[in-house]
Amino acid sequence: MTAVRTVACPNCGGTLEVRAAGLSVNLACSYCGSLLDIARPEVALIEAHDKAARGFRLSPGRRGTLFDVEWEAVGALRRRDSGYTWEEYLLFNPYAGYRWLVLSDREWQFGTMLLDLPEGDDDTVTWRGERYTRDGEASTSETTAVLGEFYWRVRAGDTVEAALYERGDTVLSREGGGGEVNWTQLVPLEDGTVAEAFGLVPLKAKRAVRSPVPSPGIFDDLPTMFGLASAALVALLLAMVLISGPVERASGSVDAPFAATREGVKIGTLTVRRPWQFVTVTARGSDFDNRWVDLDYSLVDRATGQSIDGYGIVEHYSGYDSDGSWTEGSRKGSTLLGKVPRGTYDLYVDAAAHGWPSDPPPNTSGWSSLPETVSVSIEAETGALPWGNWWTAALLLFAFPCVAVWRRYREENAG
Fold first, then answer.
1. DSSP state, 21?
2. DSSP code string of 360-378
3. Which keywords label this protein (predicted)?
4. Does 332 share its domain with 281?
């Protein structure tokens, strides 16, 4: 189409082609995204970046024929206003000049810059004898990503005041900024036409045409999502409290020996008064260190002799290494026995103490030798709340709105 000039990016050294040499003044490096001044023979760095804009549907250098003219995409912009994000592609032909391809809501439009300007006011304008009515409110459009070359200075963060006027399928776009006002005629193009012209894969789905009424912000439904999740979580907590039932407690203690297991120590008796209840068994060790105690619980039904078993542990360790002193473990441990049916139960415990790194020797006193023990107090109570289930429900209920926030934040800040 025209002679291509090759330049090197002063920031990353990448080799770049200037497709509209002599006309383009601004080039965004396709390797690092830096903005270059190519109006002069020596390429100057305007603004350095370390990441090029990605994700444009039509990359610079791609050619296609529309309206019997072969166009080459030389630049791409991603822009947004308060409710939409869209892409604009600058097309170039050395004999026909510049045109635009606009992709918004999966709808393509072909744009031609106007030399004969419309006349009118903010609400209606007349162009070539036809009246156009404003589409929605005027808004501020911001450029969020730049790729390729342009015949004017452009960079991410540039803003313009924009308004649209429509008559049927034809739209007139007015953009003002920097003391200039530019008008562009936009006519719709079928996705299949653009895809066939530039060798693109057709878009999978087509969204609704842009509404003349500004849409609500993309985060407006999130309070509803979080509100419903919070309400469900509170309702679940109330249900747990209601079904947890009356509280009964039983307590006792056990002296756990080393190198042996003290079996069948009865802690106390509990009565489960609801058809099903949770029972929590909490163990608290005395002041010990570098020790642990294994606790095997048996909740035995007096009527049937059947037992519900559980395991608990209390442990505490400390020491000193190159990073300083450290501690690990807890002298308190809780075990939740779930789905305990109505009835009267005796709680028994088997306890065995262990030393780290080895069990201590028996204490010698006179003619006898007694093993050291670790004293552990045990308390069991009915009516416990299954907090683990509640936290799991909270995680699941808030997962969807949190993912929605993350996805929409990415879409909002794309480019």
1. T
2. PPPEEETTEEE--EEEEEE
3. Plasmid
4. yes
Residues 6+ apart with CB under 8 A from 201: 195
**What tens digit of pLDDT does each residue of 26-49 get?**
788 888 878 788 777 777 777 777
271 and 193 share one domain: no
Whether residues 171 and 278 fall in one domain: no
Distance CA 270, CA 301 (A): 10
Same domain, 26 and 84: yes
Burial pattern 162-175, b for ≥16 Cβ within 10 A else e, equals: bbbbbeeeebbbbe
Structural domain containing residue 20: 5-198
The two tokens of residue 363 are: 């204490």
Cα–chain center distance at 96? 45
Instruction: Tell whether 400 is covered by a domain.
Output: yes
Report the CATH number that the domain containing residue 259 is assigned in CATH.
2.60.120
Helix axes 387-412, 222-244, angle to 10 degrees: 180
pLDDT at 371: 60
For residue 33, the tally of other CB atoms under 10 A from its CB is 22
Separation between Cα atoms, residue 94 and residue 72, nearest integer Å: 10
Name the pairing type of β-strands 249-257 and 139-150.
Answer: unpaired
Predicted model pTM: 0.49
| 297 CB neighbour count, 10 Å cutoff | 22
Residue 16 in any domain: the answer is yes
- Maximum alpha-carbon separation in the chain: 121
